[in-house]
Specification:
207 residues, alpha+beta, three-stranded antiparallel beta sheet
C-alpha cells in the first residue's frame, strides 16, 4: 500500500531515504482482520479508502498451494495502517509473520522513523526492527542492518540499555543497573549487548 511520498523543497539537495522493514504486532484493541484471517501470510496487498476502509487481499501458502482471501474492515485509531498513514512516508504491508504485520517503510530520516515507531507503540502495538538500509550517495554502497539474527533476549537487553541511558555520553546507567533490571548477571548482560553490537557491525561491513 503506497501512501504519500516525502516531498523535498525545490532546489534542496537530494537526500537518500531510509528503507526499513518492521514487524508490528497490533494491539488487541486494533482487531486487525488481516492478522486474524492469516497469522502467517506470504503476501498482502492493501489499500485504504478516504472513508477509512481497509481492503486487503491475503495470500497464504499451504503445502505448496496458494490460497487467497479478501478482507475488508473499518480502520480504528489502534490500526497499524491508519497510524503509519498519518506520516509523510511511503509504506506497504508485505506479509504476516507469527501474528505480526511485516511493514516496509521508506522515510526521510531516523527522526521520522522514531516518531512512527513511538506512535505505533502508543496504540499498544509491539514493534520490532527487522531491516534498515541507507544509501548515502551514488558513490557509496548501501549500508544495511539486518536485525533478524538478534534474539528476543538480546533485543530486550539493548532496548533497556537505550531506555536507561547506557549508550548516552556520559552514561546514565551501568551494567549493574541493567543486570538488576533484567534479573541476570552483569556478564550475561554484557554478552547480550556485545552480540547485538557484533551483529550490527557485521551488517555494515558485509554489505
Amino acid at each position: 500500500m503506497s501512501v504519500t511520498s516525502a516531498q523535498q523543497p525545490a532546489g534542496s539537495p537530494e537526500r537518500s531515504p531510509l528503507r526499513v522493514t518492521l514487524e508490528v504486532e497490533p494491539a488487541g484493541t486494533a482487531d486487525c482482520r488481516v492478522v486474524s484471517e492469516a497469522p502467517d501470510a506470504a503476501s498482502v496487498t492493501q489499500s485504504l479508502t478516504g472513508g477509512g476502509d481497509c481492503h486487503s487481499e491475503v495470500t497464504v501458502v499451504d503445502d505448496g498451494e496458494y490460497e487467497r482471501s479478501y478482507v475488508s474492515s473499518q480502520t480504528t485509531t489502534a490500526c497499524v495502517c491508519g497510524t503509519v498513514s498519518q506520516y509523510d512516508c511511503v509504506f506497504d504491508v508485505t506479509g504476516v509473520k507469527n501474528g505480526s504485520l511485516v511493514v516496509s517503510i521508506v522515510v526521510e530520516d531516523r527522526a521520522l522513523l522514531s516518531e512512527i515507531v513511538s506512535a505505533l507503540e502508543e496504540t499498544g502495538a509491539t514493534v520490532r526492527l527487522r531491516r534498515l538500509s541507507y544509501q548515502s550517495d551514488d558513490k557509496n554502497p548501501t549500508l544495511e542492518i539486518d536485525a533478524a539474527d538478534i534474539t528476543a533476549k538480546q533485543r530486550e537487553a539493548v532496548e533497556l540499555a537505550i531506555e536507561l541511558g547506557y549508550y548516552d555520553r556520559p552514561r546514565n546507567a551501568t551494567l549493574t543497573d541493567l543486570a538488576e533490571s533484567l534479573g541476570i548477571s552483569k556478564s550475561a548482560v554484557s554478552q547480550r549487548l556485545n552480540a547485538v553490537e557484533l551483529t550490527l557491525i557485521r551488517s555494515f561491513v558485509t554489505n
